[in-house]
Amino acid sequence: MSSDNTLFRVALPVPLARLFDYRAPEGARADATQIGGRVRVPFGSRELIGVVAEVGPADEAARDLKAALALLDDPPLLQGELLDSLRWLARYVHAPLGEVLATALPAALRQGAPLPETDAIVWHLVSGALEQIKRDGAPRRLAALLDTQPLTEDALDDAMPGWRAAARTLATRGLARSVREAPSHIPAGGRAGHALNDAQRAAADTIAAIDGFGAVLLDGVTGSGKTEVYLDAIAACLARDRQALVLVPEIGLTPQTLARFRARLGVEVHALHSGLNDTARARVWAAAWRGDARVIVGTRSAIFTPLPRAGLIVVDEEHDGSYKQQDGIRYHARDFALVRGKALGVPVVLGSATPSLESLHNALTERYVHVRLPQRAGDARPPTVRVLDVRKRALDAGLSPELIAKLRATVEAGGQALVFRNRRGYAPVLLCHDCGWSAQCTRCETPMTVHGGGRRLQCHHCGARRPAPQACPDCGGLALQPQGVGTERLEERLLELFPEVPVLRVDRGSTRRRDALETMLGELGDRAGILVGTQMLAKGHDLPNLTLVAVVGIDEGLFSADFRASEKLAQLLIQVAGRAGRARKAGEVWLQTHHPTHPLLQTLIAGGYPAFAEAELAEREVAGFPPFAHLALLRAEAKHIDPVMRFLESAKRAFADAGVAGVEVHGPLPAPMPRRAGFQRAQVLVSSPQRRALHAALERAVPLLRETPEGKRLRWSLDVDPVDLY
Ligand code: ADP
Ligand code: ZN
Ligand code: ZN
Question: Cβ neighbours of residue 415 under 8 Å, at least 6 residues apart?
Fold first, then answer.
């Protein structure tokens, strides 16, 4: 066929559920080999980067089509399995393919940058160089490091902060040089790990025995050695010359984790996380695309990594909420991992001490292989749990006298304690004791959190900030007082109570920078001390000297209306508790509550997470919630509520008109947060016991919503399998 009678159907990053036709660029032809390649096209008055989704025959009308400006890839960037899986994802989330592809590609590639070179720069020491450096200092330390083996720049970044200056010194003296080399993926003799215990061995054997696709739920208590099982499976995957992709939660991807992987596997481990700049991110993607990156460890969006030589996908802490994208294309990385694993024909290992009820249900119904690691590995014993009834107790910054005494005993014995409070800031509310006024965010109509020891107010929903008033804006009185306790206030009080030991606060406020937490914990080392923090402390860095975990102020979570609240709270409690006694020292967990007889706490303490999960699954079944029903949430917001309700009413009609049996439509109802950042919000919930029925209804109704005039004038989004109903 000549270029005259074929055309490109291009997926563009615009909110329209269709492809756009273009003639081939001048001098090029449109044929099927270009499917999946990027093109630059004119669009209105702009130029956009899109992806060729189809090629089609051109008819008479095609003469009037605009021509694409340039083809950017040869061969195409998106091919085979990845492109097919992304097409599946677009159908599943009912979003335009162009928007899904734009989400999947690293920013630099989405914007049209060429696929970057991925050769590594390796530093070599000239022979005999070490002897020539007499003085101690950075150059000598670097030389000693390179004397054992040449190292890539990435490896040097990990091994020696500030190595670049030292390298320049060595290079100018002719003692070291850098060479560009294709990244090596031949294992350079990784260090052997622990000999697996029987349960770990059985888990590793189960994974090894899977031929093609298979899903495994590795259900192992904290500290049971799940990571050792992953490492064993990854090593086996490398031995077969295949790629392994490991997903970790946002806060789980620590330098410590990466170092453990590198040391054990003996190959370069490529990290993909939000802290990387666009260039670095695109480089890892490109190295994976070329099949050179053999082990990729990354957070949510790493699930879009091309895996031409796939061998294994691991999703660590599979229950973690950070796997669900909460805006734009609302995909779930764990669920998409299973789709990709199936398409690639490789095993997918989901690991957790507190599996999501969805995964647990799949394991119990034998869709997944269920492998358990019921005990901690090595010498560590499970922590003992004690519930501290604080009804009718005078609390000091939220701490009971018994707990303060226990903290004192712990640090005096040279141990470390963690005080967990899932509330950032100084206090949740600023209240006037004269008239009852409290500081509210005007845009969200919810209380603003007090920060900076009482000086600042911040809205945790929309981010609005302002200084705290000196006097009550309503009555002019001076009786303004912070109510309740956040991590800042706990820190302040603990510093007063325990001036002799370090007190470190760990939350999003104190550790904005990625490595700040590591540095902080590194400086603490094994010394006696107290950590105060939010769920950021629930995982990541291993703290062998941590013997006491104190949980305070979880009572709000016991009475939330969200159907997932119990699951999230149970997971959080077990994960935080799991930080205690990870090494030889026995650990204790103290749970301070006003509701010691609450069924959730009772069940968790008596039977652990499995007992909780069993009871909760039974309740979900009765109530018709996931995993026994499938949900899609249609959210809409605007400055005024009327258009929001009109749009949602028409959506409701569209779902009804779709005429799919077994689909229920609830609403429109105000959102759980009916105002946010100045917008009025409402929602419609669509549910069905049958996933297929739900999607049939969505498939018919959603395209209509994109066309409605109401829908074009407000912000709306569809969330398939919503994780929370906000
Ligand atoms: P998880 O990922 O389940 O939380 P890890 O793999 O991090 O557990 O292991 C917890 C601790 O137990 C680590 O310090 C690890 O070095 C140790 N460990 C794991 N497996 C073994 C084993 N077979 N023998 C001795 N120690 C082990
Ligand atoms: Zn007042
Ligand atoms: Zn707000």
Answer: 528, 545, 546, 547, 548, 585
